Amino acid sequence: MAKSSDRLLLYHWAPSRSLTARWMLEEVGRPYDIALVDISKGEQHEPRHLALNPMGKLPVLAHGDVVISETAAICCYLADVFPDADLAPAIDHPLRGPYLKWLFYMPSCFEPAITHKAMGWPDAPRGTLGWGSYDAVVATLERALASSRYILGDRFSAADVIVGAGIRWGLEFKLLPETETFRRYSADLLARPALQRQRSADAALIASQSAPKSTPQSAP
Ligand SMILES: N[C@@H](CCC(=O)N[C@@H](CS)C(=O)NCC(=O)O)C(=O)O
């Protein structure tokens, strides 16, 4: 079992879902290190990465000897291991149930629904799909946020990192309707210093990847 003081190491690439894990690390506010795994070169399928995540995917977080993949699980783990950051309702708090529901809702309903739509796959019977339908998924989220600042009301939590990342991504790629509710929620999250820190760190990382590796020497 890891101690909260153990080293946090994020296996990361930008752009990727790993940006969400890094945002969460910024919300936690503890020092962390980054190990780059270049998914454009397929490094996520090399044996040393497969030993961490047999799915060959990012993000992966190592905390001491604990290794976690799946973005929502990483966020849930960090919120629980660093309770001082106040990013999760305690296990006996009435909001713990809704908190877990939204953490699971995004990867198990939102992601497949939005992927299905993005791919233009034909509709399947509602009862067969775990997410019901794209319209039901979007309407459920919209209703939950319509009269609430965050997904749990006035209280920001790790669930907003997961819900917010999904909504921001859906808006960016025009896979979600630009409703007033989604726009307002997304703008509120964007104002958070932790998200700003992650965005500028990853923008710098992306810029450094596209920059020429060495400066050409001047002609004699
Ligand atoms: N269910 C995973 C999905 C992770 C995922 O699909 N990551 C992508 C980057 S956004 C990846 O690593 N793709 C590389 C590949 O599949 O080869 C999560 O939520 O963390």
Observed structural traits:
alpha+beta; single chain; 8 helices; Glutathione S-transferase Yfyf (Class Pi), Chain A, domain 2; Glutaredoxin; four-stranded mixed β-sheet; 2 domains; binds glutathione; 220 residues
Structure, explained:
The chain is an alpha+beta fold and 220 residues long. It has 2 domains: 8-86, Glutaredoxin; 96-196, Glutathione S-transferase Yfyf (Class Pi), Chain A, domain 2 (Up-down Bundle). 49% of the residues lie in helices and 8% in strands. It has 8 helices and 4 strands; from the N terminus they run E-H-E-H-E-E-H-H-H-H-H-H. The chain has helices at 18-28, 47-50, 71-81, 96-119, 134-146, 158-172, 180-190, 193-210, and strands at 8-12, 33-36, 60-63, 66-69. Helix 1 (18-28) crosses helix 8, helix 3 (71-81) packs antiparallel against helix 6 and helix 6 (158-172) crosses helix 7 (180-190). The longest helix has 24 residues, at 96-119. The chain starts with 7 loop residues before the first strand and ends in a 10-residue tail after the last helix. Mean pLDDT is 94; it is low at 215-220. Glutathione is lined by residues 16-17, 39, 44, 56-59, 70-71, 107.
